[in-house]
Structures are given as C-alpha cells and as structure tokens.
Amino acid sequence: MDGRLETGRGALRHPLFWGALALLVLNDHVWKSAGVLPGALTGKLSDFAGMIVAPVLIAAAFRARHTPARLLAFAAATVPFVAINVFPSAATAMESLVGLVGIEWRIWCDPSDLVGLVALPAAWWALDAEPFALPNKGAVEGVGLFAAAFACMATSAPETIYETVEIPPPAWQTAAQLHNRGTVDVDVRLRWVTAEFACDRIREAPGAYLTREAFGEGVTVTLDPSRNFPLSRAAAGEALDVGADWLPLRRGCDAVLVQRDGSSDAVVFFNSEYPVPVPRHSSGPYDPYGVPNRVEVGMPGRISSGGSPTVIVSPLRTTLGDDSACPATDAPAFAYSGEYVEAGTVAKVSGTGMLRDGCFEVSFEDGDGRAIHSFLCIPMWAFDLTVGDQVRFDLANTTGFQLTRFADGDRSETQVLLTNSSENYIPSDGVGLWFRAESAERCPGAPTACGAYAADMQVRVGADVLHAGDEATGLLPGGRRYRVGIGAVRETIVGIDSCAFAEQRPGVQINTVVFVEEGE
C-alpha cells in the first residue's frame, strides 16, 4: 500500500508543512511583537501559513487517507476561518466557545484576511505528495502534530492592551467616539454639521438649536460588538479610507447627527480641540482610552453619553420651549436687491415704478452712462425718489446698504438705511441715530423655514423700544425730524448657507429704514 495512505500523516514530514509551521511560529511570536514588519503584512503571513498548517493538522489528526475525508478536513479548517472573518457574530461566538475551555482568544473580523485561502492548494499538494523517508518517522510526525496544534491554538492569543500606557496600533486620535456595547451589529448613519454657530450659544441644548438641515448627507457605518468609530473628522476620514481631509475641519467644537433604527435622532456635540488615542476595538471591564469621550450605541432605543463633560448627547428637537412670548415675525423685512454697485457710486434716478408686492423698482444711470436696476422693499413713506434725483450708494458697517439722496453739493436730505449687521450697535451714518439690539424677554427662538435657528429681538432707538414692524419719530440735533421703521430684528444662532443672506451666519441682524425730513 502507498506509504502516503497508510496513516494519513505523511504530510507531517513534508518540507512545505514544516516551512509553513516555522513561518507561523516566527510571525506570531517574534515578528509581530518586534515590530520589524508592518502589521498588515504580519497579519496576512499568519493567514497564508495557517491555511497550510491547519488543514494538514486536521487531516493528519483524523488520519484522512482518502479524498472525501480530506475534503471534510479542509472544510473543518476553512469554514470557521471564512465565517469569523466575514460575520462579526461568528467571531464573537467563536471567542465565547473557546473561552469555555479556558482559552482566551481575541478574533479580529477582517474580510481581507480571506486572501489566505489561496494557500489551500499548497496544503492539498503536501497531503498528496510523496512523503519524505526519514528515520524515526513516527517521532517526526508526532512532533509535527503537537507543534502544529500548539501553534494554531496560540496564534490568536490576545495582546495585552490594558497593562501598558501605550495603545497597540492601530488607533485613532479623536475627540469623541461611538462604541457598540451591544451583542449584535449596529448600522449607524452619521451626518456631520455644515452650519455655522457659536459653540457657547448651543452647548446647553445642541439638539434643540441644530435642525436636520444643519447637517450634511453623511455616511452609514456598521459597528460590530465592542467596536469603536471616531467622530473627529480627520480620524473618521481615515476610518472610512477616504482621507483625513474629506470634510472641512472645525475649530473649537463640532457636532454629528447620529441616526439608527429604533432610536430617536441624537446630536453629539463635543469639544474638538482635545483628541485622545482610541483603539479600534474595546473589550474588558475597563478601557482606559475609550471611556472619557465615548457615545454608546447598541442597546435598543438608546444613544447615550459615557458621562464625559466634553461630549454632550442631545435629542434632536424643534424648539427650546414656549415661543409665544416672542414678538411677531410676519412684519416686512426691508431689503434691497439689484446689481452690485461700488460703494461711493453717484448715479441719477432714471425711472421708478411700484410692483404688485409693494416693492419699488428703480433704475439709475451712473456717470459713465451705465444702467443700474434695483429693487427697494421699503414703506411708502420712506420712498422719496423721483426721476432726476441724484443718489449715492454706500455700505453701512460692511453688511448693510445705505442709499442717500442729495442736492446742492453733498448736503444730505434723505437717507434709506437698510442694515443687516452682526453687531448689537449700529450707527446711522450721517444722521446721528444709534440702534441697539436687545434680547426679547422670554423669547427662546425657533428654527426658521430653511433650517437656520433665530431668536427675535427688540431694538432700542433713543428712548423707544421697538419690535419688528414698529416705527417711531423724533427730532435730531438741528431740528430735523426723523421717522424710523423696524423690519427684522433678531439673532441668528445657527446659520445655514442655503438660507437667505440674513440667515447664513451667526450674529445679530437689525433691519431698519430711516427717513429724514429736509431741515430749515
């Protein structure tokens, strides 16, 4: 009878088997800890060597001398290998199974490890090749059987990561992280904020100030049990293999909308200035790196913070509270629109007309004969332009618009001040009025139609306190009488680019129109 089939252990004397066994032992117990080779390479070397040693070991242990028996031996080695690298639940079950016999394994679920399957034909060839004639072949086979069994059991022994001050690579530098503390995979949709906001204004309840429109499209990630995922933008880009600069970085603070089936949407708000190293996989009762900035998912219906003062988890809501105390917001917002005109441009009114929506269409002609078409949405009493008047276009505080009609040189007669400012104090240049924005009492604000968040305010003009839609009159030094109308007075807390200009950046907006009667 062929010597290869006598015992089914002839491959234990083959140089290929011993070479693979030596590679497996050296790689797992010398090269990995020495750091002489990249981690990705040592991991794949173990897979290649293991897919030669394990099938041969099982076939030899059960004396698989014929093809059907060998196929079963190969299946016994490859099916669990594929399962634990494709299905996280299988990896967890295998860890628990071997733990019952007192062996602690840590299995990393990584589908790329399946490249080790290409070594299977070599293992089959070793079983089918002519065995080497050696003295004391039984002893050689026995040593090979024992050594292979020991190497396969020891190859997945867990690294000690809780008794050192350094995190075993790979790890992320992140100011906040998601952690799946459950026992099954969790699909989570992550949408990073795209809106502008002041960190200290929304910190108390970020889920109330930030609407869904404040966040980008985002990505969906799958977390298997005990896995971590970084929320800092650069680290998240690395985890997704799209590069660290995939999203614009934010200074000071950041926010991520976390969405998952079975849970209410939650906003994770965190201080982005202090990232810490976080391992990709956490286990055990104590994790010295992940707990301080952890957001936990995995428990049904819950997205919760780990108690860190730098990470706040807030449910996504629509209002902070009762906004019935806020001033009415349906007052006209005085505005100007039209072609861009350089500040200081002097032009002549060439035509006027009133539109159906109550705004005025005005045409101008500058000193070079260029036509300028504009629209003014202001009260009737403030419109004092006729064909032939000369006007000067100016900017007010760089964000507002000021149109002044003048005659007899530079003597000012009428001023239309349409201001959209980020300051609480706004001067009416050339008139002598100051506008001071103040918070309206008990007015928490609410999301706007486009998804920004604004709180209505009141404005103080002299001794008068006015709200949107109000107007007041008074005297200026020299006896000239003024009449002022208040359009929108509010603070934008969260600004969104797709909104109207006044809602695109945080700050205070005071929108006014001023009519000054000609003095004596």
How would you explain this protein's 3D organization?
Helix 3 (about 40-60) packs antiparallel against helix 4 (about 65-85), helix 3 packs parallel to helix 6 (about 120-130) and helix 4 crosses helix 5. This protein has helices spanning about 5, 15-35, 40-60, 65-85, 90-100, 120-130, 135-155, 200, 205-210, 235-240; strands at about 170-175, 175-180, 185-190, 195, 220-225, 230, 255-260, 265-270, 275-280, 295, 305, 310-315, 335-340, 345-355, 360-365, 370-375, 390-395, 400-405, 410-420, 425-430, 435-440, 445, 455-460, 465, 470-475, 480-495, 505-515. About 25% of the residues lie in helices and about 30% in strands. A hairpin with a 3-residue loop joins strand 18 and strand 19. It starts with a helix and ends with a strand. It is elongated and about 115 Å long. The longest helix has 23 residues, at about 40-60. By secondary structure, it is α+β, with helices and mostly antiparallel strands. The strands form 5 sheets. Strands 4, 20, 21, 22, 23, 24, 25, 26 and 27 form a 9-stranded antiparallel beta sheet that branches. A 7-stranded antiparallel beta sheet has the order 13-16-15-14-17-18-19, with no helix packed on it. The protein is built from 10 helices and 27 strands.
